[in-house]
Specification:
single chain, 5-stranded parallel β-sheet, about 15% strand, binds uridine-diphosphate-N-acetylglucosamine, binds fructose -6-phosphate
């Protein structure tokens, strides 16, 4: 049932304040004035000690689920102090990469049925790792085969392009980081700030959704383009990859997400006055580095679209033909949840304007159950 919406993707984008609330329901415990705020993940509470003792955490997934894990990686590393490595499921299998008993392998999958992820899970089980699932589908193969896990509870996702599952996955992995780090006194304040940020997040998403018409106008400007680059770094490297994935898979427009730190090592050669480039430059520890990336692109007459924090448009935009997308500022590790929304809206409007099938992009299936 699409309700008042024309497409499931559109409905699922606009549903995110609600789906995020459901994801967090009963899992954030806000004590009285003297009691600390904490996270409770029922599916993991008996396994946290084992996870804390592991030598390494591996995130394993495909497509959007991989990108969600990439967005959560920095906060997991910060709060757990455990090295976190990223694996695209098919690549791990191609390499038969080493996995040990001392590893915790976290499998991220909306459907819980993706063949590559499931085969990687069997492989990790054979090698004796603790296997944790993060999935949206109760009773799915990945939920059943993992030792423990967390359901993201985002509600059924019908559009082939994953939107609300992505934001809920990031929130669950941020909660995972909080749960693993909950025995560390030195990070208590940081953790409480993140919990406050999580509680406010649905309202912030409601705010950022107001950019809908603005993103439609931007889509009208970009609809005839061949290509779109997206530069991000730090917490928002994943936003760049995921934004570009949305644009290519539904709007059928070539788009590439790139690590801004790599710009000078090749991609800069592509820059001219025609190619549109989105730069994500919301406030965080990487902000000044992104400002210099913007300056360098501007110096080469790059056609810039800058995503920045509210009130920063005049700070980040170097010239008149630079477009700004202002988004609400949230706790740094939660910023990717906010920042992906305008790009989801952009991909959606581009698709409608270009006349393609929004909910069932050509050649794609919702659940990829073959290798
Ligand atoms: C559970 C109930 C929820 C109830 C809540 C009350 C289910 C599915 N969930 O939620 O309805 O409101 O208690 O306290 O009945 N698991 C895996 N792999 C995965 C995902 C989950 O093994 O990929 C396991 C978990 O370890 C756990 C169980 O499935 O044993 C349920 O997980 P989850 O729904 O996340 O647990 P709760 O949030 O506690
Ligand atoms: C992109 C998309 C795919 C899936 C990928 C993994 O919008 O939907 O990239 O994310 O096929 O699917 P799950 O998460 O079901 O394992």
């Amino acid at each position: 049932n699409k309700g008042n919406y024309e497409h499931y993707m559109q409905k699922e984008i606009h549903e995110q304040p609600q789906s995020l609330k459901t994801t967090m329901r009963g899992r954030l415990i806000r004590g009285g004035s003297c009691k600390a705020k904490t996270v409770l993940l029922g599916g993991l509470k008996d396994h946290l000690k084992t996870i804390r003792r592991s030598r390494r955490i591996l995130f394993i997934g495909c497509g959007t689920s991989y990108n969600a894990a990439l967005a959560a990686r920095p906060i997991l590393e910060e709060l757990s102090g455990i090295p976190v490595t990223m694996e695209i499921a098919s690549d791990l299998l191609d390499r038969r990469g080493p996995i040990y008993r001392e590893d915790t392998a976290v499998f991220v999958s909306q459907s819980g049925e993706t063949a590559d992820t499931l085969l990687a899970l069997e492989y990790a089980l054979e090698n004796g790792a603790l296997c944790v699932g993060i999935t949206n589908t109760v009773g799915s193969a990945i939920a059943r085969r993992t030792h423990c896990g967390v359901h993201i509870n985002a509600g059924c996702e019908i559009g082939v392009a994953s939107t609300k599952a992505y934001t809920s996955q990031i929130v669950v992995m941020a909660m995972l980081a909080l749960a693993i780090g909950s025995d560390t006194i030195s990070s208590q304040e940081r953790r409480e700030a993140i919990i406050d940020g999580l509680i406010e997040l649905p309202n912030k998403i409601r705010e950022v959704l107001k950019l809908d018409q603005k993103m439609k106008k931007l889509a009208q400007e970009l609809m005839a383009e061949q290509s779109l680059l997206v530069f991000g770094r730090g917490y928002n490297y994943a936003t760049a990859l995921e934004g570009a994935l949305k644009v290519k898979e539904v709007a059928l427009m070539h788009s590439e997400g790139m690590l801004a730190g790599e710009m000078k090592h090749g991609p800069l050669a592509l820059v001219d006055e025609n190619l549109p480039i989105v730069v994500i430059a919301t406030r965080d520890a990487c902000f000044s580095k992104q400002q210099s990336v913007i300056q360098q692109l501007h110096a080469r007459r790059g056609r810039l679209i800058v995503m920045c924090s509210e009130g920063d448009a005049t700070v980040v935009c170097p010239g008149d033909n630079c477009r700004a997308i202002e988004v609400p500022l949230v706790e740094d590790c939660l910023q990717p949840v906010v920042n992906i929304v305008p790009l989801q809206l952009l991909a959606y409007h581009l698709t409608v304007l270009r006349g393609f099938n929004v909910d069932q992009p050509r050649n794609l299936a919702k659940s990829v159950t073959t290798q």
